[in-house]
Amino acid sequence: MTLMENVSEVTEFILVGLTDALEMQVPLFVIFSLIYLITLLGNLGMITLILLDSRLHTPMYFFLSNLSLVDCVYASAVTPKVIMGFLTGDKIISYNACAAQMFFFAAFATIESFLLASMAFDRYIAVCKPLHYTTIMTSTVCALLVTGPYICGLMQSTIHVAFTFHLSFCHSNVVHHFFCDIPPLLALSCSDINTNEIVLFTLAAVNVFFTLLVILNSYLFIFITILRMHSAEGQKKAFSTCASHLTTVSIFYGTGIFMYLQPSSSHSMDTDKMASVFYTMVIPMLNPLVYSLRNKDVKSAFKKGVGKAKSSLRFTY
After folding, report:
1. Within 10 Å of residue 299's Cβ, how many Cβ atoms?
2. pTM of this prediction?
3. What pLDDT shows up at residue 163?
4. Environment class of 148 (CB within 10 Å of its CB; exposed 0-12, middle 13-18, buried 19+)
5. Which helix (H) or strand (E) holds 175?
């Protein structure tokens, strides 16, 4: 059975988008195209650097490479459709495509939240138990800390899509958003959505509670360890690293809590759309900068890669 065979009378949806102002279509097309290009170049470039440079074959960069992969996928689930809407004015998305978009976005956004927790745990071990780091963060442990988020994300996304597209959408097919997210689709349903709201709230609350518990506990112990350091330079470096990570965590979880941990009656779709721009486009673009490009090892690997490329070009010509 395909999704089209659902009891819903709707066969396609119309995405309202960010704005109907004609004079804004071209500027927004340029802006979001640049954001998407930077996102792909930054994240795919990070994955390439980590794969090619043996000095980056450590647990920290293993997590970063997976974070970059996740950012590429969940940005790609949303941004290309938005860009094409600005370019062509086509805001129609098929029923199945809408379900697929929701699945990939929900899955990889959830995966990212759990990966952030895994990365916080990795930093906790590195700062608080440096002598035992290699014995604790083995290949098996790292694989589990990455596999777990993927399993959780894919399972939860399957649940969300199954519950959402089991509903009947007979009131309207106009989605007051720029992509197929759960709250705006629930607002279109003429079915009883109480169960859907409970499922959405419960899964989101469990995700936020568990992952933030891991992150905050990890950084609590990290801060205690930093305060016990006698080296001012060491404290400054550690605080700088923590500040960058916590800034991204705050943006990611702040927008997630704002968007999902409230009943649909409290949602302002215009406000949600602005928050979603950060959630779906800006954060994936910033992550390579926040986590990696300020890192000396990554800068060194980048310079080494550029040097090899220049040498190859000189040799060719």
Report:
1. 13
2. 0.86
3. 93
4. middle
5. strand 174-175
22 has a pLDDT exceeding 50 = yes
Asked whether the beta carbons of 136 and 94 are under 8 A apart, the reply is: no
65, 115 contact by CB (below 8 A): no
State CA 90 to chain mean position distance.
26
Q: What is the rounded distance in angstroms from the CA atom of residue 223 to the CA atom of residue 245? A: 13
Distances (CA, A) of 264 to 19, 90, 182, 259: 22, 27, 10, 10
Distance CA 137, CA 126 (A): 9
29-38, 46-55, 214-223: which has the minimum mean pLDDT? 46-55
Q: What pLDDT shows up at residue 5?
A: 44
Please, are residues 96 and 3 in contact by the beta-carbon 8 Å criterion? Answer: yes
Q: Which ranges constitute the DSSP H helices of 228-294?
A: 232-260, 269-277, 283-288
Contact 167, 87 (CB under 8 A): no
Distance (Å, whole) CA 181 – CA 188: 12
What mean pLDDT comes out for the span 129-136?
90
Q: Which two tokens stand for residue 187?
A: 């607002």
DSSP state letters, 97-152: HHHHHHHHHHHHHHHHHHHHHHHHHHHHHHHH-GGGHHHHS-HHHHHHHHHHHHHH
Q: What is the pLDDT of residue 210?
A: 93
227: how many CB neighbours lie within 10 A of its CB?
A: 10
